[in-house]
Structures are given as C-alpha cells and as structure tokens.
Amino acid sequence: EQLPLSIEVNGKMQQVNVEPRVTLLDFLREQLQLTGTKKGCDHGQCGACTVHVDGKRVNSCLSLAVMHQGKKITTIEGLANGDELHPMQEAFIKHDGFQCGYCTPGQIMSAVACINEGHANSKDEIREFMSGNICRCGAYPNIVDAIADVKN
Ligand code: FES
C-alpha cells in the first residue's frame, strides 16, 4: 500500500505516493533519482546519507519518507546556485577535503549545517559536530580546514 506524500525537494514541490516502509534515503535515490546522497551503512553510523530537513541535518537512512509530510528537503544537488558552487563546495575543492569522494556529499551537507547551526567556532567544535561523518580515506584535517575557512 502506498501513501500520498507532499514534500519539497531542492525547491521543487513533489506530490508522490510512497510505501510507508521506504526511507527518506531510498526515496531520494530511487524514486527521485537524486543519487548524490549516498548510502554507506544504512544504519545511522556513517553520515554518507546526510541531507537537510527544514535546514537541519538529518541522516536520511534513519527516517521514513512519509514522516516528512510538508517538509523542505535539501540534498547535495540543491546546494549550488545554478552554475555557481556553494562556498562550502568551493572550500572542499580548495582544501582537498576528499579523496575517493564517496562520503563528500554527506560531509558537505553536515559542514554547511555545522556553520548554520552555530557549531563552527573552533576546530575542536567542528571536529565534534562532524564526528558522525566517516571518511575512510582520512581526509579529516582538510575537511576541518575547509569548514574553518568558510566560517571565517
Ligand atoms: Fe545513513 Fe550511513 S547511510 S548514516
């Protein structure tokens, strides 16, 4: 059985039907083909699936799509302004904040939230806020540098 869902994704209103068991992550990737949001662990452990819900970061693998009736979702695809990258995307490039890039969309969504939610006042604070986003290549110092750069 499917349930009706009205949800705004990257500024576009979507009126869709979804199965109640579908996670927000699978809904974005499979139903809307927004595959920038990555599935790492599917259990809330890695942060690869991080998106913003009404401006706050959320692990999209941990919540069901139908819980977001009327909410505004932003994914990595919605961050740039047309051809102009978001300052955090620019900073990740400038500071080499990635190697393989798999965790990068989630890292960037968390990094933007880190500043917006007021947790980027020191490198320690940044590290603490970003601790749920795992990078197996170990790009952590560069990621912290990128966030600190955007903050300043
Ligand atoms: Fe959601 Fe890992 S895929 S936290």
Automatic annotation (TrEMBL):
One annotated GO molecular function: oxidoreductase activity, acting on the aldehyde or oxo group of donors
Keyword Oxidoreductase set for record: yes
UniProt keyword annotation of Iron present: yes
Superkingdom of the organism of origin: Bacteria
Record keywords: 2Fe-2S, Iron, Iron-sulfur, Metal-binding, Oxidoreductase
Domain 2Fe-2S ferredoxin-type: 3-79
Protein's UniProt name: 2Fe-2S iron-sulfur cluster binding domain-containing protein
Shown residues within the full chain: 57 to 208 of 213
